[in-house]
Design goal:
single chain, about 150 residues, alpha/beta
Length: about 150
């Protein structure tokens, strides 16, 4: 996985949020156990808290694995190549649209952002105007695009 420093920090923020969820799930589990007059295995609140606890632990481990394997990159100074923060106009099947390449871990798609790790992000990163490339979408479809404009940010 490739991210910039902001993207790396974003992973830390997600880990911390998930740790808070884990703390809450542990408290809920303890409360459900204390409040149960039956045996613990017939306690729906306890079971729900266990599921939340397990989900948080799995998510924390997944994020730590991503963080451990992350490659942190910096913006290059080549004015001709697509880089982090740039807005790229691409032509896909005669449809033009802009994407903003971000080094974040999670992009804001409402603002037209794509991450370096997305299929389109990988396709346009370090390319120049006029370059044509193909990529495979998440659902396995092969797509082609051409870079027609580049706005350096």
């Amino acid at each position: 996985m490739i991210v910039d420093q902001n993207g790396f920090d974003q992973i830390d923020e997600l880990i911390n949020k998930e740790k808070e969820k884990l703390k809450s799930a542990v408290k809920d589990k303890a409360a459900a156990f204390q409040n149960d007059t039956n045996t613990w295995h017939d306690n729906a609140a306890y079971d729900t808290a266990i599921e939340k606890e397990t989900g948080s632990i799995l998510e924390i481990n997944r994020l730590i694995d991503l963080k451990t394997s992350a490659e942190i990159i910096s913006k290059h100074n080549n004015q001709n190549l697509v880089d982090i923060g740039d807005i790229v106009t691409v032509d896909m099947n005669d449809d033009l649209f802009d994407v903003k390449l971000t080094g974040k871990f999670l992009a804001n798609s409402k603002e037209g952002e794509v991450t370096l790790n997305s299929p389109i992000g990988k396709a346009v990163y370090m390319k120049k105007i006029g370059d044509e490339t193909t990529f495979i979408t998440y659902n396995g479809k092969k797509c082609s695009l051409k870079i027609v404009d580049l706005k350096k940010q």
